[in-house]
Design a protein that fits this description.
heterodimer, A: mainly alpha, 0% strand, elongated, B: 441 residues, alpha+beta, four-stranded antiparallel beta sheet, 5 helices, 31% strand, disordered N terminus, GPI-anchor (chain B)
Chain lengths: 196, 441
């Protein structure tokens, strides 16, 4: 009986990875919120401006979130953060081209978040390895090269990227918490509205 | 067609009084011979017919020309009521809720009400001259156009959905209708009205983690005008759980400085396992104004370890989603007093002995000083009566029972030229200061 109650090494490892992943995601969310403030200010944008869905930016919105399996959650998260890794790298390059070293603060903030996104993607790969699933290959996962945009369009696109990343950070916390739950079907939460 | 005879006056054109049956018949437009003026018929059926006819006539008169409707006017407006189709110079009588209105309010047959107020709401009727035929009737309702409504939207059951509720900042005194629209991106959503309360509707989330904001617009309309207000928000911003439920606090046996507090998640929060709540606990002795705060990231219980012995405490708990939204309102307050030993009764001054042992010291009040039961009453009531040498001796007693207290607490006790300064108390030990980042009020 005692053996049956003792979590397996895999379960413990999963919980540990999920806990660390939750902490990473929360830190990332906090830093993305700060980055958003800096970005809006430096780019001269109105914080309340609405940005239409940007092509190539993975949307955090989920229609049947509570019904997803753990593996699906991990795959969705990994695909998203790999895409963000590429998008943030593009933003960093654009920012350097536009402002050079004139705006070091924005560049540093972007680079810091890019680092966290990369680390989180790696963390997700570890979790997928644990699921004996193995992460999918990274080639071709990145978003398509951005079309030639005006400066203002680039700024709006950047705003859209950061806002969506902030949503993903919250979603990732929820996803990892679902994944860490004990019992079968960790990943589908009962008792929610049918719309979920 | 012959004119109807006024039946409200003196004479009924009864058959028995008719001298000329033809004339009567013309007047009443009835077939000859019914009203038997000339011939003497049986008086009882004739009287019944007359009565019946009179009733019909009166009813017809009352409903033929009256207009009965509702009229809405603003407070302060000047109102002119026309007596139906009566000429201006017709003689009329106006009543308000059955009471005659003085002629000073009339302009010809028009009723003039200047600068109307709420007390002038009621039924207004206009009667023709002395015949008292009802010519016009209206129900006047004095009110105001609606002011901008107050709209609030909140999700206390995330991730199921959210609700919006509304009210008017001041009454209009006339009926209002409310219309609410919810736009999410390009999609219009239906806000389902709640049965109770009726000024509320709810929406189910179709998707989570959206960046697109919701825009809710409420329009209120009445007969005198309309007004509206809007709210724009994202999914996370309006998340605010209900307060924790079933808060219980109790003393811990043989621990004079501890209180155990336990509570439950609000029942409206649908999935605390997937969307766990964190909690904020605040507590203070009743005698002080300053709260101690503790933030708890998991669990639904906490042990207070720095309570003042023997003092009654008031305790409240609030809840918040771990990652989004704002804190709930405070829970219902509970009271508890830490465990205390049974009090030892002192009989007379002569029976109180002094020892110098640090572990078993008792205080010896000066002979001229009133004995205070230190644990039972507010100790500062004793301070003003005691001299400083006595206080120095008592300090050894306190240092034995409260070694963790710092100078600031001792300053609290000795604050004593004036007495107690509760604001000097600072949280120590296991307590934490409130984290101010999340919308503390």
């Amino acid at each position: 009986m005692a053996a049956a109650d003792t979590p397996s090494a895999t379960t413990l490892r999963r919980r540990d990875l999920c806990s660390r992943g939750i902490r990473l995601a929360r830190k990332m969310r906090s830093d993305v919120a700060d980055l958003l403030d800096i970005y809006v200010e430096r780019q001269g944008l109105d914080a309340s401006i609405s940005v239409a869905a940007v092509e190539g930016v993975p949307a955090a919105a989920a229609e049947h979130w509570s019904e997803q399996t753990g593996t699906q959650r991990l795959l969705d998260n990994l695909a998203a953060y790999r895409a963000f890794r590429t998008l943030l790298a593009q933003m960093l390059e654009e920012q350097r081209e536009q402002l050079g070293d004139a705006d070091a603060a924005l560049g540093r903030a972007l680079a810091a978040v890019l680092l966290q996104v990369s680390a989180f993607a790696y963390h997700l790969e570890e979790l997928l390895e644990l699921e004996s699933r193995g992460p999918p290959g990274d080639e071709g996962d990145g978003p398509p090269a951005p079309p030639r945009l005006s400066l203002f369009e680039q700024k709006l696109r950047g705003l859209g990227v950061l806002r969506e990343l902030a949503q993903w950070a919250v979603r990732s916390v929820r996803d990892l918490r679902q994944l860490a739950r004990p019992g079968p079907g960790a990943g589908s939460a009962p008792g929610l509205a049918e719309g979920q | 067609m012959a004119k109807l005879t006024d039946l409200s006056g003196e004479g009924w054109p009864v058959a028995s009084s008719q001298k000329n049956s033809t004339d009567f018949d013309e007047k009443l437009g009835t077939s000859p011979g019914v009203w038997t003026g000339g011939e003497m018929a049986n008086p009882v059926p004739s009287a019944c017919c007359v009565v019946l006819a009179a009733v019909v006539v009166v009813y017809a008169q009352r409903h033929s020309q009256q207009d009965s409707h509702i009229q809405y006017e603003r407070v302060g407006a000047d109102v002119t009521m026309k007596c139906g189709s009566m000429d201006w110079d017709a003689a009329v009588t106006w009543t308000a809720n059955g009471t005659d209105i003085d002629d000073s309010h009339l302009n010809g047959s028009y009723l003039i009400l200047k600068n109307v107020d709420l007390t002038q709401s009621g039924q207004y009727s206009c009667y023709e001259g002395s015949s008292w035929h009802l010519k016009y009737q209206t129900y006047l309702r004095v009110g105001t156009p609606p002011k901008e409504p107050v709209l609030m939207c909140r999700s206390n059951n995330y991730p199921k959905g959210f609700y919006c509720s509304w009210h008017l900042p001041s009454p209009t005194y006339i009926p209002n209708s409310f219309n609410i629209s919810v736009i999410h991106g390009t999609r219009e959503m239906v806000c389902e009205k709640d049965i109770f309360p009726k000024n509320r509707c709810h929406i189910r989330y179709l998707q989570l983690f959206l960046t697109v904001k919701y825009k809710v617009t409420l329009t209120v309309t009445n007969a005198l005008g309309k007004n509206s207000t809007s709210l724009t928000f994202d999914e996370f911003a309006i998340v605010k759980p209900d307060p924790p439920e079933s808060v219980v606090a109790k003393p811990v046996p043989n621990n004079p400085r501890r209180l155990e507090v336990a509570w439950q998640n609000p029942s409206s929060w649908p999935d605390p396992e997937s969307f766990p709540l964190k909690f904020f606990l605040r507590y203070r002795p009743l005698i002080l104004d300053q709260w101690q705060h503790v933030e708890l990231l998991d669990g639904t219980s906490h042990t207070i370890t720095d309570a003042y012995a023997g003092k009654e405490y008031i305790i409240q708990v609030a809840a918040k989603d771990n990652d989004i939204g704002t804190w709930s309102d405070w829970s219902v307050a509970v009271h508890a007093t830490p465990w205390t030993e049974e009090p030892k009764h002192l009989t007379t001054e002569a029976q109180v002995t002094e020892t110098t042992s640090a572990s078993t010291s008792y205080f010896v009040p000066p002979p001229t000083t009133k004995i205070c039961d230190w644990w039972a009453v507010r100790p500062w009531q004793c301070v003003g009566q005691l001299d400083w040498s006595w206080l120095l001796m008592v300090s050894s007693l306190f240092s034995e029972y409260a070694p963790s207290w710092g100078h600031e607490r001792w300053g609290w006790v000795l604050g004593g030229h004036g007495g107690l300064r509760g604001s000097d108390v600072v949280g120590k030990g296991d307590t934490k200061q409130a984290v101010g980042e999340e919308h503390w009020v």
